[in-house]
Structures are given as C-alpha cells and as structure tokens.
Amino acid sequence: MALLEEEFLAACRDVLAPRAIVLRNDTAARGLEGLADEDRVALGELAPPVEIVENGARFAIDPLGGQKTGWFYDQRENRRLASRFASGGRVLDLYCFGGGFGILAALAGADQVLAIDRSETALQLAARSAELNGVGARCRFAKGDAFDELERLHGQGERFDLVIADPPAFARSKKDLGPALRGYRKLARLSASLVAKGGALFIASCSHQVETEAFAEAVRRGLQDAQRDGRIIATTGAAPDHPVHPFLPESAYLKAQLLALD
Fold it and tell me: Would you say domain 64-261 falls under CATH 3.40.50.150?
C-alpha cells in the first residue's frame, strides 16, 4: 500500500473529492516492513475536532489524535441495536471512547447514562457530542479503569437496565489468548452483576485471535460465575461496510452478543 500511495490518493480525489485525507500509518505491521510510523494530512487541511453523523446523531471526533481513525465505525449497527433497550432506563457504557453507544442510548430515551473511559481526551469529545445532541444533562462521563469501576459500582449496589462493554482488543497475539479469554469471562461476570433483572447486556470483542465460539464460551462462563440466566437476543459482528473475506478469517475480528438477563 505504501508503494500505491500516490495512486490511492489520486483515486480518492477523483471519486470522493474530499476536503482532506488523513493517513494513519501507525500500525505495527509497518515496522516489520521497515516503514516509519507517521500520522499526517496527505491532502487538504484539517482542524480537529470534525463532526460526523451516525444513526442520526452528531459526534465530534479527532481523525489525527484519536484512536484508530478517531471513530469506531464498525460498531454502527450494534450501537443502534443496543439503543433499542435503553428507553426509560439507566445505562452504563464501559470503554465509551467518543460516547457512541451511550449518546445514542440517551437519544433513544435513556433516563441516565454513565459513560466510563481511561482517556480524558476521549471523554471531553464525548461530552461535547452529548451537548451537540441535546442530551448532556442525562449523560455523565467519568475517567476510570473499567474493571475497577465495575467492582466499585457493584460494591455500591448499583444496577443498570442496559450495560455496554466494548473493550479494546485483549489479545493482540496468540500468546495473549489465554489471558484474554479469562479477561472476557471476568468482564462478563462483573458486567452481568450490574444488570437489573430483566435488563440487557451488550458485550463485544475486537480481538481477531479470539474466535466467536471461544468468546461465546467466555461470556457464558462469566454469566454462570455471576449466577445470572438469560437469553442471547443477537450474535453480531461488524457493520456491512466492514465485510468479511471468505479466505481471510482475521477480517471477522469483531464479535458481540446482546443478552436479556433474568
């Protein structure tokens, strides 16, 4: 792709006529090929944050400084799905990043949203997006470690009608697989313990090393540890604009479950 950069940029100009093109060349694979890391504006001008619209909601994102491309577009359909279980309830959005799940839940009628992330910058953008959508009064954004906050909230006897757990990749290589599965099991246990009776849990993994069946088993064991029962409402992956290649199993990296808990 580095060799095709000029052709790629020319095609983007001709087909999309963008105001700006940002190259986020910061993946570990570049180092293996002897290429330097770089994040740069390859075309036009850009002054973050910029505004995007997803599922009818407005979000302020940073394509230059934010994680990945500044937004996780692959969860678009899952955000809409989870928001259907938010009306009139309390929502906990773990690893909230730019607030995609929580803000859409508020727009769907959630009474309260508590969104947690370790990045202060991401939380600031999320709070700005909540104001853009007129739901700032119903959304609270807090800095913290998800596991620590889950333990704390459980100790306080808190309960939520919808809990969303969309963590970063727990397994970046095969050697991480065992610890990752234990991490997903723990995350499922702690998250399920905070779901009110009759509420919903959305939990996801973006680790391509973790296969769908193994993730589902980790979630099942977590529910068992939490002594919770329920039903799987949906098993999903990435939005359609992140297609899975039939000969590239790594492209099926995202897997998620939405569960109704008794």
Answer: yes
